[in-house]
Design brief:
Helix content: 25-40%
Number of strands: 7
Number of helices: 9
Radius of gyration: 28 Å
Length: 361
Amino acid sequence: MPSRFAGGAYWVLSGPSAPPNSPPRSEGAGSRRATGPPKSAESRAEFGEVVSDPTPEPLAPLHCDVPAAVAARWGANVVRAAEVCAALESKTGSRAVDSPGQAAAAAAILAAIVDDRLIEEALLARRRSVTPAELDHELEALSARPGGLGVGFEPGGEGVAQLRSDLRGRLARARLVADLPAASPEALQAEFDRDPARFGKPASALVRGYLHRLPAGALETDVATALAAGERLAAALTAGNAADGGDAPGYGPVVPFRLDALGLEPALEALAFGSGADSWLGPVRTRAGVLVFRATEHVDAVIPRLADVAGAVRVAAEARARAEGIEGLLAALRSVAAIDFAPISPSPPTPVQPLDGPPTF
C-alpha cells in the first residue's frame, strides 16, 4: 500500500479501536468470532467481525431464472442472482446471460456490487456510511437540472432505485479516499510531465476529402471493398484525374473539419500529422467510415508552462490519486474478504421439447 495512505485512509482496513495509521488487518484461514459485541448485522460490521457460515450455500453458474442463487459470498455476506440480474436488465435491457457480451456485463456488475458492499462495510465500521438523506439530496439536485431525471425515472420506479444504488456507490467511493492529502509539488510536476500537451492546445490540421460511410459493425467484406475503392480514388486524385472525387462507388465529399491531435482517431491522426506534404492520403478507416483526404493548414501544438496551468494539473493529479487510492484500498479489502464468485458463462439455449402427439388448436 503506498505510504501516502498512512494516517489517512488506512482506517478503512483497521478496526474501530486501532490507531488511524495501523496497517491492514489480515485474517487467518479459519473464521474469527468476536466474543463481546451483540450479534446483529450492524454490530458485526461495527466490530469488524468476520463470521463464516458453517454450511455455506453452494455456488452454481449464474442464471437469472434462479434469483435466489448465490452469485458471490464472503464471510456472512452473500450477493444473490436477483440483484445482479436486475442491474443487468437496467444496464443492457435484458436479463438473459446468453452471449459472451452479456456474460462479461454480468461479471462486471457482480464485481461492482461486491466492491460496493466492501466499501459500505468499511465505512459502516467507522460510522461514515452514506445516509438516505444524502442520497435524497443528490437526487433532488439531479432532478433540478434541465430535463430532470428523464424518462424511466418516475418516483418509485426501478430506474430511480438503480440510480440511487449507483449514486450510493459513487458517494461511498469518494468518501473512501476523502482523507487523501492535497497533491504535492512533486505530484503536480509528475502529472504535468505525463503529457504536457493535454494542458495546452493540441496540434491541428484542416481536413478535406471524400468519405465512404460505414456503420461501426460493418462486415469485413464491406470494409475491404471500400478500402479498395479508396485506393483507386486516392490514385486518381493524386494524378489530377478526379478533382471532384470521380465516380468512386460509395464515396462522397465530406464537409471540411478541423482535426485535433487528441488520440481519438489514431490512424487518421498518424497520417494527417505524419505527412508534411500537401498530398492525398488514405484510404484510412475511421469511426465514420473510410476516408481519402488532404490535411492542410497545420497548426503546431502549444505547450504551456506548469505555472500557467497549475489549477488544471492539480485537478488531474488529485483525480488520479483518488482513482489509484480507491483501487489500492479495494484490492486490500478484497484480499482480506477472500471472496468466492459463482462462474458466469453464456447459458445454452433452452431445448425445445418435442410434442407427444399432433398439435391441437
